[in-house]
Amino acid sequence: NPFTKEVKVKLNEKIDGELSVYNSVGQLIFKDKINSDEYTLNRNIMKAAGVYFINVKSKNTEERYKIIAVD
């Protein structure tokens, strides 16, 4: 799933929670509230190409996704 400009995170259902993005060493680089079944992340929040992890958390569920940002 490499991407250059943006990536869309599609969830199984609409959630009211929080989306966080971590770099490959576990540092939090972005956090936002989410109240939807999808979220679009722009590449500009990631300072370098590489592997990132998206964590989506609500009261009832927590999901984690791996993405690859390229130049």
Would you give an account of this structure?
By secondary structure, the chain is an all-beta fold. It has no helices and five strands. The protein has strands spanning 2-3, 6-23, 28-42, 50-58, 62-69. The chain has a five-stranded mixed sheet with strand order 1-5-4-2-3, with no helix packed on it.
User: What global shape is seen?
Assistant: globular
In terms of quaternary structure, the protein is single chain
Provide the β-strand percentage band.
over 45%
| Uncertain ranges | none
Distance between the termini: 13 Å
- What's the count of strands? 5
Please write the string of helix (H) and strand (E) elements: EEEEE
Number of helices: 0
Helix content: under 10%
Radius of gyration: 12 Å
Major beta sheet summary: 5 strands, mixed
Average pLDDT over all residues: 92
Structural class determined from secondary elements: mainly beta
Spatial order of strands in the largest sheet: 1-5-4-2-3
